[in-house]
Amino acid sequence: MGSADWYLASVQLSGVVWAAAFGLYAVRYWPVLTRPRLDGKPG
Fold first, then answer.
1. What pLDDT was estimated at residue 1?
2. What is the mean pLDDT of the segment spanning 13-42?
3. Taking residues 26-42, what's their average pLDDT?
4. What is the pLDDT of residues 1-18, one digit of tens each?
5. How far lies 36's CA from each of 26, 27, 32, in Å?
6. CA distance 10 to 15
7. Angle value at C-alpha 15, between 9 and 20, nearest 5 degrees
8. Please, how many CA atoms are within 13 Å of residue 27, restricted to the half-sphere of its CB?
9. In whole angstroms, what is the distance from residue 14 CA to residue 38 CA?
10. What is the pTM of this model?
C-alpha cells in the first residue's frame, strides 16, 4: 500500500468516526434539543 492509499483510508476512517460520534451526540441530546424552552421564550 502506498502513502496515498494510507492517506485515503485515514480520511475515510476519520469520516466514519466523526459520523459515529455525531450520531451518538444526536441520540443522547435529541430530547434536550427538541423540547420547549424552560423559560417559555421562543427559540
1. 60
2. 95
3. 92
4. 679 899 999 999 999 999
5. 17, 17, 9
6. 9
7. 125
8. 6
9. 37
10. 0.68
* Average model confidence (pLDDT) across the chain: 93
CA angle 1, 15, 35 (to 5 degrees): 165
Rounded CA separation 35/25 (Å): 16
Contact 37, 43 (CB under 8 A): yes
Residue type at position 34: T
Length of the chain: 43
Distance CA 36, CA 13 (A): 36
pLDDT at 42: 85
Instruction: Give CA–CA dist 21/27, Å, rounded.
Output: 10
